[in-house]
Amino acid sequence: MEIEELYSRFTECNGLTTDSRHCPEGSMFLALKGETFNGNAFAAQSLAQGCRYAVVDEPQYASPENPRIILVDNCLETLQKLANYHRRRLGTRMIGVTGTNGKTTTKELIATVLGEKFKVLYTQGNFNNHIGVPLTLLRLKPEHEMAVIEMGANHPGEIKTLVHIAEPDYGIITNVGKAHLQGFGSFEGVIRTKGELYDFLREKGNSTIFIQNENPYLNKIATGLTCVRYGQTPGLDVTGKVVSCSPFLRFSWTAEGTSHEVQTHLIGSYNLDNALAAVTIGRYFGVEDAKICHALSSYVPQNNRSQLVHTASNTLIVDAYNANPTSMMAALENFRQMEAAHKVAILGDMKELGEGSHEEHQKVVDFLKECGFERVMLVGPEFGGTSSSFEHYKDVKEVEALLAAHPLQGCCVLVKGSNSMKLSELPASL
Residue 314 and residue 426: Cα distance in Å, rounded? Predict the structure, then answer.
């Protein structure tokens, strides 16, 4: 079936689902495949549960007698083509967001600020890959005036794939750092891949990017693009600085000679750039200064991203969604500068660092020796291979067992590690 005809069927539906356990009445089911599942096998079930159509790519699950089952060559490619076709039909102004650190928080802040003036669609959670991006685009409706689309990658070429699906009109790379080095091969590979967003916009022509002015890596690859700049250097489109961070970020920002101060619910001075990006983009699209400040002061982060949690016994800074050398060092430096008694750092392995993993974990351990925290608890085999005198535990279960026998009391605890280390389970024990 040609994409135009399939799109016509899609417009008859109340959205699209790829999960046979979630089949809203009148929706379209599209059968994806993975290592442990085959969505084609659930096509008939999806129709019985209320879907209007089911799209499959294996002939044995289609039948000429059932026109509600649509056969295509490849369901994943069809999903991506359908999303691109839909995006083009609606023509919504779109901002592409990528980067090593901060892209999810920045995306949330941008959407919150733009939401003060526009009807905004934005990426939910971490739906930022080759499946999540098209699913997000297919949620676009005519009433949406803007879209903020997060794009993630852990291998070369992935951002290129995503930008050709989403076709953003504007772009922002939050930063580049040492993450997913196992997939990218090198730090230069990270820069090239994130830069695929700039490449697309450069080829498109007359495109605008929002850029952190003090980042030498981004400036180097931003040639040929219109740059709207933010940072801490005077005279930029938006200039900002940290006022305090104890523990929540309070910052000031200045544009066109007018200054404002904002108290946020964001933990960490490293969130300054994320907030300034949202200010810059909000102003670019005409959101009033007062509304920008209101949006940023009202935003509360979720999903284990720099959350402040008060338990009966301790105060926790939970940043257990992701970890790489750049974000780990930023979190530790911020924790070191915080005014708090009885600081305890519980850190889990940083994943996907490839051959440089041992070196990067040792750098973290060496920095920890300078921090003077009351207690450091390292979790996972990568930290276990470093040279240090800090406590070490095999996994989160060992930590939970220790805390059950010897609870922490009256401490300020930083919990940070890659998501697969499952440190997000620790707050229940603290």
Answer: 12
